[in-house]
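ok so for the tutorial part 2 we go from a plain amino acid sequence to predicted structure tokens. step 1 is just haveing the sequence, like this:
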Amino acid sequence: MSIDPTVVSHLLAVIWFVGCWFGYTRYASWKARDTACLSSVLHLYREDWMRRLLLRDNRIADASVIGNLERNASFFASSTLIILAGIFTVLGASDRALSLLADLPLVQPVSREMAEFKLLCLALVFVYAFFTFSWCMRQYNFSAVLIGSAPMVGERDVSEQERKAFAVRAARVISMAANQFNLGLRAYYFGMATLAWFINPWFFMLVTVGVVVVLYRREFHSDVLDVMVFTPTQAGELPKEKNE
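step 2 — the prediction. this is what the tokens look like for a chain of 244 residues:
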């Protein structure tokens, strides 16, 4: 029994895509343990934020920041539902979509069943994104509750050790929410790569590698990371203003 080479190429593309996505996720999590990256550096900033929160009685600004972060996750969750609605709309009119794709250059012709399979895979990517963004929203809700329960300045029945433990715990919860947001954004990146699958499975594999390279550079070698880990050589020294 012979196997269709086209089916084999699509199967290899799916395996390559899943391996790159989850392989990079595991690699980034492992490398962040002992290497400066956006997630690890931002966690240190969140710990500083929580320690400073305990030094002031007015926490309105802190609650506002949490609210803004939650709204960002809510925006992406809502956008994901719209994208899913569009995907299922195209799935119901796959014949027309195939005819439109056939007119594009370099597009490999496929059967209707294969096109529907690709659309279902794309839908699964954004279903995953929706669940991560919705879980991110809930975790930011938990963070708001933690901020509301933060010890006030001058409370005598709260020890210094308890205050430090609270700062670490609250920063950890916020970082967990941010990690879910990052996973959701990563799903968007790989969802964009999945669009290349409708052109050609080999091009799909190439674009997937490109997405991994972009994610790695932004997480571990971006300019914003260099700025965030930068420490002035002399404390208190201000940059000199240029003469007009």
